[in-house]
Amino acid sequence: MSNKKRIEQEYLLKTSLKVFENMIFTPSGLSEWFAENVDVKQDNYIFHWDGSDEEAVLLSQKLGSHIRWQWLKDKEEGLDTFFEISYTIDDLTNSVILKIVDYADEEDFEEVEMLWEASVNDLKKVLGT
Known about the structure:
By secondary structure, the protein is α+β, with helices and mostly antiparallel strands. The chain has helices at 17-25, 27-33, 72-76, 109-127; strands at residues 5-13, 37-41, 44-49, 52-62, 66-71, 83-89, 96-104. The chain has four helices and seven strands; from the N terminus they run E-H-H-E-E-E-E-H-E-E-H.
């Protein structure tokens, strides 16, 4: 088992569900806020950032619920870690409640939290919220 710690972050987004789902389920949507570019071949996603590429395997996705990947390097090391974007709708406000789950080594924990915070801020800008 890995010594990675679980990261959980939650955000409230005032946006339409259809627009939000486009941002998390499509390569073009993910390219607007999560990575500079995203290529998909079957269940393999290649995320491109600043000349660096990271490959992830799609573990599961369900419209109206979540999308979950595992970094290929973690899978090759036999780790059971993943990163997930899940969401529900707030019944009172119709806002999207976004939940991020990820794992990071102790020494990278704060940096990974800040990267997600920055990514979600980019998502908010794209969504106009």
